[in-house]
Specification:
Length: 225
Amino acid sequence: MKIMIGEFIRNSRRERNISQEVLAEEFGVSVQAVSKWETGASFPDITLLPTIAEYFDADLNELFFCSKSESQSISFDEITDDERLRIVQLKGRKILSVDQYDSSIRIMLKTQLDKSNDGPTVNVEIWGNADIQGDINGDLSAKQGVNCGRVEGNVTTESGINCGGVGGNVDAGCGVNCGHVEGNVNSGGGVNCGGIGGDVTASHDIHCSEIKGDVSCKGNIFYEK
């Protein structure tokens, strides 16, 4: 198997937007040494390998061969083939876990879904924050916040939701800002909606045109036209 230390260092350095000068200072070597590593003209001293791997948050197998150890690999065969659209946030080859996720980075997505009655219903599941240009004709679930057009199904998010409207229910960990919601709304923050066809539970103020169901609100309720 070909040793690819130089390629790994070059790619990882560029992903982090780090110069060869910065890397040289970090590892106590010359810029020329880093350049030779990246071109494959030479290899780092063996005593530096654990330090380099730790700096780039990698194991030695990834450092040597640009691939993770089997014990650290993620099998996508474990994901059910249920026609659900899943979006996984990646940084390079690494899947970012929730505690590592940078909320300032948002997934950009354009939906091109068939809105006809004969078209398939596509449910969207997002592991992170997302800005979606377009509508969703099924359910939407997200680990963080989402900005999007209309959602025909239900919305479940651990953070806030900003959308054109919801055809089902909304369950959000933070604020809800959208058009008309045909079902119930459960918000860990405030609610700003065009109108709500079901019940509402909110931890902060509610601003909307009408609420047809029961209301449980820890803040104030403002009916706006």
